[in-house]
Specification:
- The structure holds two protein chains of two kinds.
- Chain A is α/β, with parallel strands linked by helices.
- Helices cover 51% and strands 12% of the residues of chain A.
- In chain A, helix 8 links the parallel strand 4 and strand 5.
- The radius of gyration of chain A is 22 Å and the shape is elongated.
- Chain A starts with a helix and ends with a helix.
- Chain B is an all-alpha fold.
- In chain B, 10% of the residues are buried.
- Chain B contains nine helices and no strands.
- In chain B, helix 2 crosses helix 3, helix 2 packs across helix 8 and helix 6 packs across helix 7.
- Chain B has two domains: 112 residues, no CATH class; 76 residues.
- The chains are: A alpha/beta, B mainly alpha.
Chain lengths: 278, 250
């Protein structure tokens, strides 16, 4: 026992890295598909889904893309699931890039989705529009319900028919890995738009108080939030909309189990060592 | 053939877009074993490419449409409304006075405007926000179910206890001490939850890389072997000192 304790105390951190690495990579390997399982959706993620489900054909949705490739792992699957859902519902999608480093990633993703057989009917300027980047000051200005939406973004297209100001946007969702969307939450009090959020796991807890007050209508938290959304869309439309988030969830689960294991072992070793020393 | 086509041929072919991301990922991951030149090369390339990419995008999406084009248009045909643009440009240019020690105060006009504008915009909203957050907690305790009601009590009492922990006007003894102790437990639970979310976020980042490696198995195997061989040769023949991996971090 004493020997095991000593060994565990001096365990090389590289062994921990290796085990975490294996727990992540094994569920992703071909032949291990049985380890992939859809997650059960939480109330917060379902709120976003229900908001989109409640929209009619031709209603407008605003996506505020405020992340760059560094947060791609958690937020891109969420964007993809959300965008597909919007196209399924035939709502107009306005995509605005608040992060310039994310513009090309966003456009590429939109291009890939609209190239899919199921969504190749969607046309830019009619069913969706990439509204590029407008500096933050103008971004704040669009929250004002009376400012010309089209004029701010200097864009043209049939999609703008019936969408003049933010008042005509039925739902806004922000995707970010930073505190950027606190501005949107604050502005929501004044301008009273419906706002949902998809954030990285790190930022999730910071936005929870706004859910309780109703300032945010729905939140997808991290990779899990994206996997939940993929499941909701797949269940509703009885098609396979599972993407990289669902695939990654089994890796996430197994890696967490390994980390939990090490935390528990670490604590046991710590207490035993403490007791031994008196 | 123009330069763009040449660059596209070099950087957008299948070999480049599959091998380079895999090799770069493994080069960066080699740090988990020990600090080494491959990691340093990967790190420097990443920083250089990120900065270059950011600069090109800034030019394309900020400087060109919001500065170069309006100035160009102004010279082609001048409108009275362009005076507003000129004023903004002048205000922005005052930033460069920061380089002069004697005239640095001129830049204060820019900051005064910026802070004034932002404060004016945000202060009323921030107050409204605080009020809404505070009043939302003062609701009917009967939430319909035992779980919801208990949750609300824990939330209210937890917030109060956490605030008491930071109340230093009286010594933390008796009831005050016990409440402060509960407060620190509440804070630790929050930090634990935040840490859990951070771990989830970090693992998710690696999952993205792992998906890339799994999608390109041949490239992953070849690059991993190449990196391992390099590490063996490097640490066997070129870096023979006894420095431990832990010391590399310092």
């Amino acid at each position: 026992m004493k020997k095991i304790l000593e060994k565990l105390k001096k365990i090389d951190r590289r062994i921990i890295y290796l085990l975490v690495f294996l727990s992540i990579i094994i569920p992703l390997l071909p032949g291990f598909d049985f380890l992939i399982f859809p997650v059960s959706p939480t109330k917060e993620t379902k709120q976003i889904f229900d908001e989109i489900e409640g929209l009619n054909e031709g209603d407008a949705v605003f996506i505020d893309w405020a992340f760059d490739p560094s947060s791609k792992a958690e937020l891109l699957p969420m964007f993809e699931a959300f965008f597909k859902h919007c196209l399924k519902k035939k709502v107009k999608v306005f995509i605005y890039y608040a992060s310039i480093n994310g513009i090309n990633l966003g456009k590429e993703s939109v291009k890939n989705i609209t190239a899919m057989e199921e969504f190749n009917w969607a046309r830019e300027g009619i069913h969706y529009i990439n509204m590029e980047y407008v500096p933050i000051a103008a971004d704040i200005r669009i929250f004002n319900m009376d400012v010309d939406f089209k004029g701010t973004y200097k864009k043209e297209g049939k999609i703008f028919e019936g969408v003049e100001t933010l008042r005509d946007i039925k739902y806004m969702i922000g995707l970010s890995g930073s505190a950027y969307h606190f501005t949107h939450v604050d502005m929501q009090i004044r301008f009273n738009y419906k706002f949902g959020i998809a954030v990285t796991g790190v930022m999730g807890p910071d936005f929870v108080p706004y859910l309780q007050t109703g300032q945010i209508t729905g939140m997808a938290n991290g990779l899990r939030g994206a996997a939940e959304y993929e499941r909701l869309v797949s269940d509703k439309y009885e098609r396979n909309y599972y993407g990289s988030a669902t695939k990654g969830m089994s890796s996430l689960t197994f890696s967490h189990l390994v980390i939990f294991g090490f935390v528990i072992v670490g604590n046991i070793v710590y207490y035993m060592d403490k007791r031994k020393r008196g | 053939m123009d330069l763009k086509a040449v660059l596209d041929n070099i950087f957008l072919n299948d070999v480049f877009v599959t091998w380079v991301p895999v090799l770069a990922t493994i080069m960066i991951m080699s740090f988990l074993y020990r600090d080494n030149p491959l990691y340093k090369i990967g790190e420097n390339i990443f920083i250089g490419v990120s900065l270059g990419y950011g600069w090109i995008l800034s030019w394309e999406y900020i400087i060109d449409p919001f500065f170069i084009m309006p100035v160009n248009d102004m010279f082609v045909e001048f409108h009275m409304s362009d005076i507003t643009n000129i004023l903004w440009f002048l205000l922005a240019l005052t930033m460069f006075f920061r380089f002069s020690r004697k005239k640095a105060w001129v830049a204060n006009y820019y900051f005064a405007f910026l802070f004034g504008y932002m404060a004016g915009y945000y202060i009323p909203i921030a107050i409204q926000n605080i009020m809404l957050q505070s009043t939302s907690i003062m609701t009917d305790l009967d939430k319909g179910s035992f779980f919801e009601t208990t949750k609300w009590i824990v939330l209210v009492f937890g917030t109060f206890a956490a605030l008491i922990y930071f109340f230093f006007s009286k010594p933390h003894k008796g009831l005050l001490g016990k409440t402060a102790r509960t407060g620190i437990v509440v804070l630790m639970i929050f930090f634990g939850a935040a840490f859990g979310s951070t771990v989830m976020g970090r693992v998710s980042l690696f999952i993205d890389r792992a998906l890339l490696l799994v999608d390109h198995p041949v490239q992953s195997l070849v690059c991993t072997l190449a990196v391992i061989i390099f590490l063996i040769i490097y640490f066997r023949f070129f870096k023979k000192d006894d420095k431990t991996a832990e010391e590399d971090f310092i």
